[in-house]
Design goal:
This protein is of the alpha/beta class. The chain has a single domain, classed as Rossmann fold. It is 41% helix and 17% strand. The protein has a nine-stranded mixed beta sheet with strand order 1-2-4-3-5-6-7-8-9, sandwiched between helices. The chain is globular and about 50 Å long. The chain starts with a helix and ends in a 5-residue tail after the last strand.
Length: 327
């Protein structure tokens, strides 16, 4: 075969691969984005694992701590709990850096979410609290620092009250779990068209970016596939049975409350309420950020987490406001 023909075939094969890649991105942009995140985590030595708990397959990420003797978090285990409609990948900006700082990090997909099983259950807060406790037991985690984001914050708060021996230090990020006057209804989280999706995104971030049509359609399809779990979770939360307003005073672990100052989903006032009702808690307010503080503003959040988790004696009553954007 001549050099010219070989080169022509190579260029042709390359063009075919490029067309296939472009087609995959247009048809399944979320699949492409998810696998990009997972590949990046793998490159950063974050393990993707699974375990069976009560007959259900559970997916989780695990990042082993840095072996450096100077690592700030050496010897501490950290469990991070995601929010409504989310999954472990949402913590991806923080996981490798926390491991580098010496923390042994576990990030489960809650029951019904991500790559964990989706059994026919009520998806209540108590059920997910039990799930987190069973997850820790299954992995022989006797106690840990626990962080929860949004609905995950509600789960973490309830875990700290109901099973205090499991929680060393507590962190909540733009947390649900206390009463506040709502300006939206449950349908916000399960949009069926591009207008509804735009409304959801505008609640989550103060700087929403318009999505191209193919990405919008893929996002709506994904949200609808998981809508039944989200609806059951919301039905349980809206009942008010598990609100923590009158239980916050029972939390005695060192606590950090982190909030995006521009959160339009769960307002800063709710975070201040949690802070004031947990004796000795500290608060970190992140300017320029909304409900997605641990991802959109992960750098200042990371610094705040490490400072809080490694302080000896534990921080108490510290209030701080920091600039927010991580880019």
């Amino acid at each position: 075969m001549s050099l010219g023909k070989a080169l022509f075939r190579c260029i042709g094969a390359l063009l075919v691969l490029m067309l296939l890649a472009a087609g995959t991105f247009l048809l399944e942009p979320l699949w492409v984005a998810d696998n990009r995140i997972r590949y990046k985590l793998w490159r950063q030595h974050v393990r993707s694992e699974s375990i069976e708990i009560d007959g259900n397959r559970v997916h989780y990420f695990e990042a082993l701590p840095s072996t450096s003797p100077n690592a700030a978090g050496a010897g501490r285990t950290l469990v991070l709990v995601h929010g409504l409609g989310a999954r472990g990948e949402d913590w991806s900006p923080l996981i490798p850096s926390l491991a580098s700082a010496g923390f042994h990090v576990y990030v489960p997909d809650l029951l019904g979410y991500g790559r964990s099983a989706k059994p026919d259950v009520d998806y209540s807060i108590p059920l997910e609290v039990k799930f987190v406790a069973n997850f820790m037991q299954a992995l022989q985690i006797e106690h840990a620092d626990v962080g929860g984001w949004s609905m995950g914050g509600w789960i973490a708060l309830k875990l700290a009250v109901n099973r205090p021996w499991l929680v060393d230090r507590l962190m909540v990020f733009d947390s649900a779990g206390v009463y506040f006057p709502s300006t939206f209804d449950a349908t916000l989280f399960t949009p069926t068209d591009s207008t509804g999706l735009s409304h959801l995104i505008a609640r989550l971030t103060p700087q929403p970016k318009p999505l191209p049509g193919f990405a919008s359609r893929a996002a709506i399809k994904h949200l609808q596939e998981n809508a039944w779990v989200v609806k059951r979770s919301m039905h349980q939360m809206e009942s008010g049975r598990d609100l923590m307003d009158f239980r916050l005073a029972d939390i005695h672990q060192p606590t950090l409350v982190v909030w995006g100052k521009l959160d339009r989903l769960i307002p800063l006032a709710a975070g201040e309420q949690i802070h004031h009702k947990i004796a000795g808690s500290s608060m970190l307010i992140v300017e320029g950020c909304g409900h997605l503080t641990p991802s959109e503003c992960w750098r200042p959040v990371l610094h705040g987490m490490i400072d809080f988790l490694t302080a000896d004696p534990p921080l108490a009553g510290v209030e701080k406001t920091v600039a927010g954007r991580s880019e």
